[in-house]
Amino acid sequence: MVALASSTEKRLTVQLAEIASGTTAIRSLDWDRDRFDIEFGLQNGTTYNSFIIRGDKVALVDTSHAKFRDRYIACLQETIDPREIDYLIISHTEPDHSGLVREVLELAPQAVVVGTKVAIQFLEGFVHHPFESRIVKSGIRLDLGDGHDLEFVNAPNLHWPDTMLTYDWGTQVLFTCDVFGMHYCSDALWDEDLEAIAPDYRFYFECLMAPNARSVLMALKRMGGLGDIEAVANGHGPLLKHHAEELIECYRTWSQAKAKAEKMVAVFYVPNYGYSDRLSQALAYGIGKTGVEVEMVDLTGTDQQEIREVAERAAGIVLGMPPSSGREATEAATAIGTILASAREKQAIGLFEAYGGDDEPIDPLLTRFRNLGLKPSFPSIRITETPGEATYKLCEEAGTDLGQWLLREKTVKQMKSLDSDLDKAMGRLSGGLYIITAKKGELKSAMLASWVAQASAEPLGVSIAVAKDRAIEALMQVGDRFILNVLEAGNYQSLMKHFLKRFPPGADRFEGVETRQASNGAPILAGALAYLECEVVSRMECSDHWVIYSTVDTGRVSKAEALTAVHHRKVGNHY
Ligand code: FEO
Protein backbone atom coordinates (compact mmCIF):
# COMPACT_ATOMS: atom_id res chain seq x y z
CA MET A 1 0.00 0.00 0.00
CA VAL A 2 1.38 3.40 -0.91
CA ALA A 3 0.05 6.69 0.41
CA LEU A 4 1.38 10.04 -0.60
CA ALA A 5 1.37 13.16 1.52
CA SER A 6 2.38 15.90 -0.84
CA SER A 7 3.44 19.48 -1.03
CA THR A 8 3.91 20.45 -4.66
CA GLU A 9 5.24 23.86 -3.62
CA LYS A 10 8.74 22.64 -2.76
CA ARG A 11 8.32 19.23 -4.30
CA LEU A 12 9.05 17.46 -1.05
CA THR A 13 6.76 14.47 -0.50
CA VAL A 14 6.65 11.54 1.86
CA GLN A 15 5.80 8.00 0.80
CA LEU A 16 4.69 5.32 3.23
CA ALA A 17 4.70 1.66 2.21
CA GLU A 18 4.77 -1.86 3.65
CA ILE A 19 7.83 -3.57 2.21
CA ALA A 20 7.83 -6.86 4.14
CA SER A 21 6.04 -8.49 7.03
CA GLY A 22 5.98 -5.98 9.90
CA THR A 23 8.28 -3.65 7.99
CA THR A 24 7.28 -0.19 6.82
CA ALA A 25 9.25 2.27 4.70
CA ILE A 26 8.95 6.02 5.20
CA ARG A 27 10.55 7.50 2.13
CA SER A 28 11.23 11.25 2.00
CA LEU A 29 11.16 12.19 -1.68
CA ASP A 30 13.32 15.20 -2.57
CA TRP A 31 12.33 15.74 -6.18
CA ASP A 32 14.41 18.84 -6.87
CA ARG A 33 17.54 18.32 -4.82
CA ASP A 34 20.08 20.79 -6.16
CA ARG A 35 23.34 19.46 -7.45
CA PHE A 36 25.69 20.30 -4.63
CA ASP A 37 27.57 17.23 -3.62
CA ILE A 38 29.47 15.61 -6.43
CA GLU A 39 27.36 12.46 -6.45
CA PHE A 40 24.28 14.47 -7.34
CA GLY A 41 25.52 14.88 -10.88
CA LEU A 42 22.44 13.38 -12.46
CA GLN A 43 19.03 14.82 -12.99
CA ASN A 44 16.76 12.86 -10.77
CA GLY A 45 16.67 14.29 -7.24
CA THR A 46 16.97 11.81 -4.39
CA THR A 47 15.12 10.14 -1.53
CA TYR A 48 15.98 9.54 2.13
CA ASN A 49 14.58 6.20 3.26
CA SER A 50 13.75 5.28 6.86
CA PHE A 51 12.16 2.06 8.11
CA ILE A 52 10.04 0.80 10.99
CA ILE A 53 10.40 -2.87 12.01
CA ARG A 54 7.67 -4.14 14.31
CA GLY A 55 8.36 -7.27 16.35
CA ASP A 56 7.49 -7.61 20.00
CA LYS A 57 9.90 -4.70 20.18
CA VAL A 58 9.94 -1.87 17.67
CA ALA A 59 12.98 -0.54 15.82
CA LEU A 60 13.29 2.58 13.68
CA VAL A 61 16.12 2.37 11.14
CA ASP A 62 17.52 5.85 10.35
CA THR A 63 15.52 9.07 10.13
CA SER A 64 15.57 11.69 7.38
CA HIS A 65 17.04 14.96 6.20
CA ALA A 66 16.24 17.99 8.38
CA LYS A 67 14.40 19.63 5.48
CA PHE A 68 11.69 16.96 5.95
CA ARG A 69 11.25 17.74 9.66
CA ASP A 70 7.50 18.43 9.69
CA ARG A 71 6.54 15.95 7.00
CA TYR A 72 8.64 13.08 8.34
CA ILE A 73 7.66 13.54 11.99
CA ALA A 74 3.96 13.82 11.05
CA CYS A 75 4.21 10.64 8.97
CA LEU A 76 6.08 8.82 11.73
CA GLN A 77 3.48 9.83 14.32
CA GLU A 78 0.62 8.76 12.05
CA THR A 79 2.28 5.38 11.67
CA ILE A 80 3.40 4.68 15.20
CA ASP A 81 3.33 6.19 18.66
CA PRO A 82 7.00 7.26 19.08
CA ARG A 83 6.84 6.14 22.72
CA GLU A 84 6.62 2.57 21.37
CA ILE A 85 10.00 2.80 19.65
CA ASP A 86 12.46 0.61 21.55
CA TYR A 87 15.50 1.03 19.31
CA LEU A 88 16.73 3.73 16.95
CA ILE A 89 19.21 2.03 14.64
CA ILE A 90 21.73 4.40 13.06
CA SER A 91 23.26 2.97 9.90
CA HIS A 92 25.47 6.00 9.52
CA THR A 93 25.52 9.55 10.80
CA GLU A 94 25.57 11.81 7.78
CA PRO A 95 22.85 14.43 8.19
CA ASP A 96 20.70 13.22 5.29
CA HIS A 97 19.82 10.20 7.46
CA SER A 98 20.48 11.42 11.00
CA GLY A 99 19.19 14.98 10.52
CA LEU A 100 16.11 14.24 12.63
CA VAL A 101 17.64 12.03 15.33
CA ARG A 102 17.38 14.83 17.89
CA GLU A 103 13.68 15.36 17.11
CA VAL A 104 12.91 11.64 17.18
CA LEU A 105 14.66 11.24 20.55
CA GLU A 106 12.64 14.13 21.98
CA LEU A 107 9.49 12.19 21.05
CA ALA A 108 10.98 8.82 21.94
CA PRO A 109 13.35 9.44 24.89
CA GLN A 110 13.08 5.78 25.88
CA ALA A 111 14.60 4.59 22.59
CA VAL A 112 18.02 2.97 22.78
CA VAL A 113 20.28 4.26 20.01
CA VAL A 114 22.07 1.39 18.25
CA GLY A 115 25.14 1.98 16.09
CA THR A 116 28.85 1.51 15.64
CA LYS A 117 31.22 3.01 18.19
CA VAL A 118 32.11 5.87 15.82
CA ALA A 119 28.44 6.63 15.13
CA ILE A 120 27.50 6.73 18.80
CA GLN A 121 30.45 8.99 19.61
CA PHE A 122 29.41 11.38 16.87
CA LEU A 123 25.77 11.44 17.99
CA GLU A 124 26.76 12.19 21.57
CA GLY A 125 28.27 15.44 20.32
CA PHE A 126 25.37 16.12 17.98
CA VAL A 127 22.28 15.41 20.10
CA HIS A 128 23.41 17.46 23.13
CA HIS A 129 21.43 15.57 25.74
CA PRO A 130 21.96 12.12 27.18
CA PHE A 131 20.45 9.07 25.55
CA GLU A 132 20.80 5.37 26.12
CA SER A 133 22.95 3.65 23.52
CA ARG A 134 24.21 0.26 22.50
CA ILE A 135 27.40 -0.15 20.48
CA VAL A 136 27.24 -3.07 18.07
CA LYS A 137 29.58 -4.69 15.58
CA SER A 138 29.58 -7.51 13.05
CA GLY A 139 27.89 -10.65 14.25
CA ILE A 140 25.96 -9.02 17.11
CA ARG A 141 22.26 -9.88 17.00
CA LEU A 142 19.23 -8.07 18.35
CA ASP A 143 16.06 -10.17 18.53
CA LEU A 144 12.98 -7.95 18.29
CA GLY A 145 10.70 -10.98 18.64
CA ASP A 146 7.75 -11.97 16.47
CA GLY A 147 10.05 -13.17 13.69
CA HIS A 148 12.37 -10.17 13.49
CA ASP A 149 15.88 -11.15 14.48
CA LEU A 150 18.44 -8.52 13.47
CA GLU A 151 22.15 -9.02 12.80
CA PHE A 152 24.59 -6.18 12.29
CA VAL A 153 27.45 -6.04 9.79
CA ASN A 154 30.19 -3.43 10.01
CA ALA A 155 30.79 -1.76 6.66
CA PRO A 156 33.34 0.96 7.44
CA ASN A 157 34.08 3.46 4.67
CA LEU A 158 30.94 2.67 2.65
CA HIS A 159 31.14 5.57 2.35
CA TRP A 160 31.72 6.89 5.88
CA PRO A 161 33.80 5.36 8.66
CA ASP A 162 30.75 4.65 10.83
CA THR A 163 28.59 2.70 8.37
CA MET A 164 26.91 -0.58 9.28
CA LEU A 165 24.30 -2.79 7.67
CA THR A 166 21.39 -4.49 9.45
CA TYR A 167 19.97 -7.84 8.30
CA ASP A 168 16.59 -9.14 9.44
CA TRP A 169 16.81 -12.95 9.50
CA GLY A 170 12.99 -13.08 9.66
CA THR A 171 12.12 -11.10 6.52
CA GLN A 172 15.52 -11.44 4.82
CA VAL A 173 15.59 -7.70 4.27
CA LEU A 174 19.02 -6.04 4.39
CA PHE A 175 18.99 -2.41 5.56
CA THR A 176 21.96 -0.67 3.96
CA CYS A 177 21.56 3.12 4.11
CA ASP A 178 23.99 4.59 1.52
CA VAL A 179 25.18 1.20 0.30
CA PHE A 180 23.40 -0.08 -2.87
CA GLY A 181 21.65 3.29 -3.10
CA MET A 182 21.23 5.81 -5.88
CA HIS A 183 20.10 9.38 -6.18
CA TYR A 184 16.93 8.70 -8.11
CA CYS A 185 13.60 10.15 -7.08
CA SER A 186 10.35 8.73 -8.40
CA ASP A 187 7.14 7.26 -7.04
CA ALA A 188 8.53 3.81 -7.76
CA LEU A 189 9.09 2.03 -4.47
CA TRP A 190 11.01 -0.83 -6.08
CA ASP A 191 13.63 -1.35 -8.79
CA GLU A 192 11.33 -2.70 -11.52
CA ASP A 193 12.72 -0.36 -14.17
CA LEU A 194 16.39 -1.33 -14.28
CA GLU A 195 17.07 0.65 -17.44
CA ALA A 196 15.85 3.86 -15.80
CA ILE A 197 17.92 3.52 -12.65
CA ALA A 198 21.10 1.88 -13.98
CA PRO A 199 23.00 5.09 -14.90
CA ASP A 200 22.27 6.64 -11.49
CA TYR A 201 23.19 3.45 -9.66
CA ARG A 202 26.54 3.34 -11.46
CA PHE A 203 27.32 7.04 -11.09
CA TYR A 204 26.56 6.89 -7.37
CA PHE A 205 28.88 3.90 -6.99
CA GLU A 206 31.66 5.73 -8.84
CA CYS A 207 31.35 8.79 -6.60
CA LEU A 208 30.77 7.22 -3.19
CA MET A 209 31.88 3.60 -3.20
CA ALA A 210 34.65 3.28 -5.80
CA PRO A 211 37.12 5.24 -3.61
CA ASN A 212 36.70 2.45 -1.06
CA ALA A 213 36.67 -0.57 -3.34
CA ARG A 214 38.58 -2.78 -0.90
CA SER A 215 36.14 -1.87 1.88
CA VAL A 216 33.26 -2.75 -0.45
CA LEU A 217 34.77 -6.18 -1.09
CA MET A 218 35.30 -6.66 2.64
CA ALA A 219 31.67 -5.77 3.35
CA LEU A 220 30.46 -8.15 0.61
CA LYS A 221 32.54 -10.89 2.19
CA ARG A 222 30.95 -10.20 5.57
CA MET A 223 27.50 -10.23 3.93
CA GLY A 224 28.28 -13.78 2.82
CA GLY A 225 27.62 -14.88 6.39
CA LEU A 226 24.03 -13.71 6.21
CA GLY A 227 21.08 -15.62 4.79
CA ASP A 228 19.41 -15.03 1.43
CA ILE A 229 18.67 -11.40 0.66
CA GLU A 230 15.03 -10.99 -0.35
CA ALA A 231 15.23 -7.20 -0.55
CA VAL A 232 17.67 -4.38 -0.02
CA ALA A 233 16.18 -1.52 1.98
CA ASN A 234 18.65 1.18 0.99
CA GLY A 235 18.73 4.79 2.14
CA HIS A 236 18.49 6.48 -1.26
CA GLY A 237 16.34 5.74 -4.30
CA PRO A 238 14.07 2.80 -5.09
CA LEU A 239 14.53 -0.27 -2.89
CA LEU A 240 16.01 -3.37 -4.53
CA LYS A 241 14.01 -6.54 -4.97
CA HIS A 242 13.52 -7.39 -8.65
CA HIS A 243 17.20 -6.94 -9.49
CA ALA A 244 18.73 -7.08 -6.01
CA GLU A 245 21.13 -9.95 -6.70
CA GLU A 246 22.31 -8.45 -9.98
CA LEU A 247 22.81 -4.99 -8.51
CA ILE A 248 24.69 -6.35 -5.48
CA GLU A 249 26.95 -8.31 -7.86
CA CYS A 250 27.65 -5.09 -9.78
CA TYR A 251 29.33 -3.76 -6.62
CA ARG A 252 31.53 -6.84 -6.55
CA THR A 253 32.50 -6.63 -10.24
CA TRP A 254 33.17 -2.89 -10.19
CA SER A 255 35.10 -3.04 -6.92
CA GLN A 256 37.23 -5.98 -8.07
CA ALA A 257 38.18 -4.00 -11.18
CA LYS A 258 39.19 -1.00 -9.05
CA ALA A 259 41.15 -3.10 -6.57
CA LYS A 260 43.15 -4.70 -9.42
CA ALA A 261 44.70 -1.38 -10.44
CA GLU A 262 48.49 -1.29 -10.47
CA LYS A 263 48.71 1.92 -8.48
CA MET A 264 46.86 3.30 -5.50
CA VAL A 265 46.48 6.76 -4.01
CA ALA A 266 45.72 7.15 -0.31
CA VAL A 267 43.39 10.05 0.43
CA PHE A 268 43.59 11.12 4.08
CA TYR A 269 40.79 13.31 5.39
CA VAL A 270 38.98 14.27 8.59
CA PRO A 271 35.27 13.33 8.59
CA ASN A 272 33.00 16.00 10.06
CA TYR A 273 35.65 18.72 9.84
CA GLY A 274 34.92 21.57 7.44
CA TYR A 275 34.42 20.25 3.92
CA SER A 276 37.18 17.64 4.23
CA ASP A 277 34.93 14.71 3.38
CA ARG A 278 33.26 16.29 0.34
CA LEU A 279 36.47 17.71 -1.07
CA SER A 280 38.31 14.42 -0.58
CA GLN A 281 35.45 12.62 -2.28
CA ALA A 282 35.73 14.90 -5.33
CA LEU A 283 39.49 14.33 -5.44
CA ALA A 284 38.95 10.58 -5.14
CA TYR A 285 36.41 10.64 -7.96
CA GLY A 286 38.92 12.44 -10.20
CA ILE A 287 41.70 9.99 -9.35
CA GLY A 288 39.38 7.03 -9.95
CA LYS A 289 38.56 8.27 -13.45
CA THR A 290 42.15 7.49 -14.51
CA GLY A 291 41.90 3.87 -13.40
CA VAL A 292 44.15 4.39 -10.37
CA GLU A 293 42.75 2.87 -7.18
CA VAL A 294 41.86 5.10 -4.24
CA GLU A 295 41.79 4.31 -0.55
CA MET A 296 40.08 6.85 1.69
CA VAL A 297 41.53 6.95 5.20
CA ASP A 298 40.14 8.78 8.23
CA LEU A 299 43.08 10.73 9.71
CA THR A 300 41.55 10.74 13.15
CA GLY A 301 39.92 7.34 13.58
CA THR A 302 42.36 4.88 12.03
CA ASP A 303 45.02 2.98 13.89
CA GLN A 304 48.64 3.93 13.19
CA GLN A 305 49.60 0.53 11.82
CA GLU A 306 46.93 0.76 9.14
CA ILE A 307 47.95 4.33 8.29
CA ARG A 308 51.57 3.21 7.93
CA GLU A 309 50.62 0.25 5.75
CA VAL A 310 48.45 2.34 3.42
CA ALA A 311 50.98 5.20 3.18
CA GLU A 312 53.78 2.76 2.31
CA ARG A 313 51.74 0.96 -0.31
CA ALA A 314 50.45 4.16 -1.95
CA ALA A 315 51.97 5.58 -5.12
CA GLY A 316 50.47 8.93 -4.17
CA ILE A 317 49.27 10.66 -1.03
CA VAL A 318 46.50 13.26 -0.85
CA LEU A 319 45.93 14.90 2.48
CA GLY A 320 43.20 17.24 3.72
CA MET A 321 44.39 19.73 6.30
CA PRO A 322 43.11 18.85 9.79
CA PRO A 323 42.11 21.38 12.47
CA SER A 324 44.99 22.98 14.33
CA SER A 325 43.42 22.61 17.79
CA GLY A 326 41.28 20.20 19.78
CA ARG A 327 41.14 16.41 20.09
CA GLU A 328 41.07 15.82 16.34
CA ALA A 329 44.17 18.00 15.90
CA THR A 330 46.12 15.79 18.30
CA GLU A 331 44.97 12.57 16.61
CA ALA A 332 45.64 13.98 13.15
CA ALA A 333 49.13 15.16 14.17
CA THR A 334 50.01 11.62 15.25
CA ALA A 335 48.66 10.24 11.98
CA ILE A 336 50.55 12.80 9.89
CA GLY A 337 53.74 11.91 11.79
CA THR A 338 53.18 8.29 10.77
CA ILE A 339 52.57 9.28 7.14
CA LEU A 340 55.73 11.38 7.05
CA ALA A 341 57.71 8.49 8.52
CA SER A 342 56.28 6.13 5.89
CA ALA A 343 56.52 8.46 2.88
CA ARG A 344 59.23 7.87 0.30
CA GLU A 345 60.85 9.61 -2.60
CA LYS A 346 58.92 9.80 -5.86
CA GLN A 347 55.52 9.34 -4.28
CA ALA A 348 53.06 11.96 -5.54
CA ILE A 349 51.72 14.37 -2.95
CA GLY A 350 48.72 16.72 -3.02
CA LEU A 351 47.34 18.83 -0.18
CA PHE A 352 44.00 20.58 0.20
CA GLU A 353 42.41 22.86 2.75
CA ALA A 354 39.21 21.70 4.43
CA TYR A 355 37.77 25.20 5.00
CA GLY A 356 36.91 24.24 8.57
CA GLY A 357 37.81 27.64 10.05
CA ASP A 358 40.84 26.30 11.96
CA ASP A 359 42.91 24.52 9.31
CA GLU A 360 46.56 23.69 9.87
CA PRO A 361 48.55 25.76 7.35
CA ILE A 362 49.45 23.91 4.15
CA ASP A 363 52.90 25.26 3.35
CA PRO A 364 54.98 23.92 6.29
CA LEU A 365 53.61 20.42 5.70
CA LEU A 366 54.13 20.65 1.95
CA THR A 367 57.75 21.66 2.58
CA ARG A 368 58.27 18.59 4.76
CA PHE A 369 56.90 16.30 2.06
CA ARG A 370 59.00 18.04 -0.59
CA ASN A 371 62.10 17.64 1.56
CA LEU A 372 61.42 13.92 1.68
CA GLY A 373 61.45 13.90 -2.12
CA LEU A 374 57.73 13.61 -2.80
CA LYS A 375 56.50 15.28 -5.96
CA PRO A 376 53.55 17.71 -5.73
CA SER A 377 51.26 16.59 -8.54
CA PHE A 378 48.78 19.46 -8.39
CA PRO A 379 48.92 22.96 -6.91
CA SER A 380 47.79 22.89 -3.28
CA ILE A 381 44.05 23.51 -3.12
CA ARG A 382 43.32 26.58 -1.03
CA ILE A 383 39.67 27.19 -0.24
CA THR A 384 38.67 30.80 0.23
CA GLU A 385 34.89 30.49 0.23
CA THR A 386 32.22 27.90 0.91
CA PRO A 387 32.89 25.14 -1.64
CA GLY A 388 30.47 25.01 -4.55
CA GLU A 389 30.32 23.20 -7.86
CA ALA A 390 33.42 24.95 -9.23
CA THR A 391 35.52 23.96 -6.20
CA TYR A 392 34.44 20.33 -6.40
CA LYS A 393 35.20 20.30 -10.13
CA LEU A 394 38.63 21.76 -9.44
CA CYS A 395 39.26 18.97 -6.92
CA GLU A 396 38.08 16.35 -9.40
CA GLU A 397 40.42 17.71 -12.07
CA ALA A 398 43.31 17.89 -9.59
CA GLY A 399 42.68 14.24 -8.75
CA THR A 400 42.68 13.32 -12.43
CA ASP A 401 45.98 15.18 -12.94
CA LEU A 402 47.50 13.21 -10.09
CA GLY A 403 46.25 9.89 -11.50
CA GLN A 404 47.53 10.75 -14.99
CA TRP A 405 50.90 11.74 -13.55
CA LEU A 406 51.21 8.37 -11.86
CA LEU A 407 50.41 6.61 -15.13
CA ARG A 408 52.65 8.78 -17.29
CA GLU A 409 55.40 6.19 -17.77
CA LYS A 410 52.89 3.55 -18.79
CA THR A 411 51.26 5.98 -21.25
CA VAL A 412 54.59 6.91 -22.85
CA LYS A 413 55.60 3.24 -23.06
CA GLN A 414 52.33 2.42 -24.72
CA MET A 415 52.80 5.21 -27.28
CA LYS A 416 56.33 4.09 -28.12
CA SER A 417 55.50 0.47 -28.66
CA LEU A 418 53.20 1.05 -31.53
CA ASP A 419 54.37 -0.43 -34.71
CA SER A 420 52.54 -3.70 -34.96
CA ASP A 421 50.51 -4.32 -38.09
CA LEU A 422 47.37 -4.16 -36.01
CA ASP A 423 48.24 -0.73 -34.60
CA LYS A 424 48.99 0.54 -38.08
CA ALA A 425 45.80 -0.94 -39.51
CA MET A 426 43.75 0.63 -36.69
CA GLY A 427 45.43 3.93 -37.50
CA ARG A 428 43.77 3.89 -40.91
CA LEU A 429 40.43 4.52 -39.22
CA SER A 430 39.97 8.24 -39.65
CA GLY A 431 37.55 10.66 -38.05
CA GLY A 432 36.65 14.31 -38.24
CA LEU A 433 37.87 16.95 -35.82
CA TYR A 434 35.38 18.30 -33.34
CA ILE A 435 35.25 20.27 -30.11
CA ILE A 436 32.63 19.22 -27.59
CA THR A 437 31.49 22.06 -25.35
CA ALA A 438 29.20 21.64 -22.36
CA LYS A 439 27.70 23.69 -19.55
CA LYS A 440 26.01 22.30 -16.45
CA GLY A 441 25.03 24.65 -13.65
CA GLU A 442 27.97 26.99 -13.23
CA LEU A 443 30.42 24.53 -14.78
CA LYS A 444 31.73 24.67 -18.34
CA SER A 445 34.13 22.36 -20.09
CA ALA A 446 35.39 21.42 -23.53
CA MET A 447 37.27 18.63 -25.27
CA LEU A 448 38.80 17.94 -28.67
CA ALA A 449 37.17 14.80 -30.12
CA SER A 450 37.62 12.73 -33.22
CA TRP A 451 35.93 9.44 -32.36
CA VAL A 452 32.55 10.77 -33.46
CA ALA A 453 30.02 9.15 -35.79
CA GLN A 454 26.38 9.48 -36.74
CA ALA A 455 24.57 6.70 -34.90
CA SER A 456 20.88 7.00 -35.81
CA ALA A 457 18.68 8.67 -38.40
CA GLU A 458 15.29 8.82 -36.68
CA PRO A 459 15.75 10.57 -34.36
CA LEU A 460 19.05 12.03 -35.50
CA GLY A 461 21.74 10.80 -33.16
CA VAL A 462 25.50 10.67 -32.75
CA SER A 463 27.93 8.50 -30.82
CA ILE A 464 31.06 9.95 -29.26
CA ALA A 465 33.79 8.00 -27.48
CA VAL A 466 35.04 9.94 -24.46
CA ALA A 467 38.02 8.73 -22.43
CA LYS A 468 37.05 8.05 -18.83
CA ASP A 469 39.59 10.51 -17.48
CA ARG A 470 38.29 13.51 -19.40
CA ALA A 471 37.08 16.41 -17.29
CA ILE A 472 34.06 16.90 -19.55
CA GLU A 473 32.90 13.33 -18.96
CA ALA A 474 31.08 14.33 -15.78
CA LEU A 475 29.06 16.86 -17.80
CA MET A 476 27.94 14.21 -20.28
CA GLN A 477 25.72 12.07 -18.07
CA VAL A 478 22.32 10.84 -19.26
CA GLY A 479 20.06 13.89 -19.74
CA ASP A 480 22.94 16.39 -20.03
CA ARG A 481 23.16 18.70 -23.02
CA PHE A 482 26.19 19.76 -24.99
CA ILE A 483 27.37 21.15 -28.34
CA LEU A 484 29.27 19.20 -30.96
CA ASN A 485 31.31 21.88 -32.79
CA VAL A 486 32.57 20.74 -36.21
CA LEU A 487 35.98 22.11 -37.21
CA GLU A 488 36.69 23.25 -40.76
CA ALA A 489 39.31 21.69 -43.05
CA GLY A 490 42.24 24.10 -43.43
CA ASN A 491 40.94 26.36 -40.68
CA TYR A 492 41.10 24.38 -37.48
CA GLN A 493 44.64 24.81 -36.18
CA SER A 494 44.09 27.59 -33.67
CA LEU A 495 41.03 25.98 -32.06
CA MET A 496 42.69 22.56 -32.02
CA LYS A 497 45.85 23.99 -30.48
CA HIS A 498 43.90 25.84 -27.82
CA PHE A 499 41.80 22.87 -26.73
CA LEU A 500 44.69 20.40 -26.87
CA LYS A 501 46.50 22.42 -24.18
CA ARG A 502 46.87 20.93 -20.76
CA PHE A 503 44.71 23.13 -18.53
CA PRO A 504 45.44 23.42 -14.81
CA PRO A 505 42.69 22.09 -12.49
CA GLY A 506 39.61 24.29 -12.57
CA ALA A 507 40.90 26.50 -15.42
CA ASP A 508 38.45 28.25 -17.74
CA ARG A 509 38.74 26.41 -21.06
CA PHE A 510 37.09 29.28 -22.93
CA GLU A 511 39.35 32.16 -21.96
CA GLY A 512 40.31 34.00 -25.15
CA VAL A 513 37.91 31.95 -27.28
CA GLU A 514 34.95 33.61 -28.99
CA THR A 515 31.67 31.87 -28.17
CA ARG A 516 27.94 32.45 -28.12
CA GLN A 517 25.37 30.67 -26.05
CA ALA A 518 23.30 27.91 -27.62
CA SER A 519 19.63 27.44 -26.73
CA ASN A 520 20.71 24.50 -24.52
CA GLY A 521 23.05 26.81 -22.59
CA ALA A 522 26.37 25.37 -23.82
CA PRO A 523 28.93 27.55 -25.65
CA ILE A 524 29.01 27.46 -29.46
CA LEU A 525 32.47 28.21 -30.86
CA ALA A 526 32.38 31.16 -33.25
CA GLY A 527 35.21 29.63 -35.28
CA ALA A 528 33.47 26.29 -35.91
CA LEU A 529 32.21 25.27 -39.35
CA ALA A 530 28.99 23.84 -37.92
CA TYR A 531 27.43 22.93 -34.60
CA LEU A 532 24.91 20.39 -33.33
CA GLU A 533 22.95 20.73 -30.09
CA CYS A 534 22.86 17.31 -28.45
CA GLU A 535 21.29 15.57 -25.46
CA VAL A 536 22.80 12.44 -23.91
CA VAL A 537 20.45 9.44 -24.09
CA SER A 538 22.65 6.55 -23.04
CA ARG A 539 26.24 5.59 -22.25
CA MET A 540 27.98 2.33 -22.97
CA GLU A 541 31.08 1.42 -21.01
CA CYS A 542 33.88 0.38 -23.36
CA SER A 543 36.97 -0.35 -21.29
CA ASP A 544 38.85 2.96 -21.07
CA HIS A 545 36.14 5.02 -22.82
CA TRP A 546 32.46 5.76 -22.52
CA VAL A 547 30.62 5.63 -25.83
CA ILE A 548 27.99 8.29 -25.43
CA TYR A 549 24.88 8.18 -27.61
CA SER A 550 23.05 11.49 -27.93
CA THR A 551 20.14 12.76 -29.94
CA VAL A 552 20.54 15.97 -31.90
CA ASP A 553 17.92 18.69 -31.48
CA THR A 554 19.14 21.40 -33.80
CA GLY A 555 22.21 22.50 -35.73
CA ARG A 556 23.62 24.92 -38.23
CA VAL A 557 26.41 25.23 -40.83
CA SER A 558 28.20 28.57 -41.22
CA LYS A 559 29.81 27.99 -44.65
CA ALA A 560 27.83 25.92 -47.14
CA GLU A 561 30.81 24.84 -49.27
CA ALA A 562 33.39 24.14 -46.57
CA LEU A 563 34.44 20.62 -45.57
CA THR A 564 35.03 19.03 -42.18
CA ALA A 565 38.61 18.76 -40.91
CA VAL A 566 39.80 15.15 -41.02
CA HIS A 567 42.10 13.49 -38.53
CA HIS A 568 44.55 11.01 -40.09
CA ARG A 569 46.69 8.95 -37.73
CA LYS A 570 49.61 6.56 -38.04
CA VAL A 571 48.58 4.14 -35.33
CA GLY A 572 45.37 3.23 -33.59
CA ASN A 573 46.07 2.82 -29.90
CA HIS A 574 46.32 6.45 -28.96
CA TYR A 575 44.90 9.63 -30.42
FE1 FEO B 1 23.26 9.38 2.36
FE2 FEO B 1 26.34 9.28 3.41
O1 FEO B 1 24.60 9.90 3.48
UniProtKB/TrEMBL annotation:
SMART domains: Flavin_Reduct, Lactamase_B. One of its GO terms (molecular function) is metal ion binding. PROSITE patterns: FLAVODOXIN_LIKE. Residues 265-403 form the Flavodoxin-like domain. Pfam families: Flavin_Reduct, ODP. Transmembrane segments: none annotated. Keywords: Electron transport, Iron, Metal-binding, Transport. It comes from the Bacteria. Coiled coil: none annotated. Its cofactor is Fe cation. In the C-terminal section; belongs to the flavodoxin reductase family. In the N-terminal section; belongs to the zinc metallo-hydrolase group 3 family. PANTHER family: DIFLAVIN FLAVOPROTEIN A 2-RELATED. Mediates electron transfer from NADH to oxygen, reducing it to water. This modular protein has 3 redox cofactors, in other organisms the same activity requires 2 or 3 proteins. This is Putative flavoprotein. It comes from Rubidibacter lacunae KORDI 51-2.
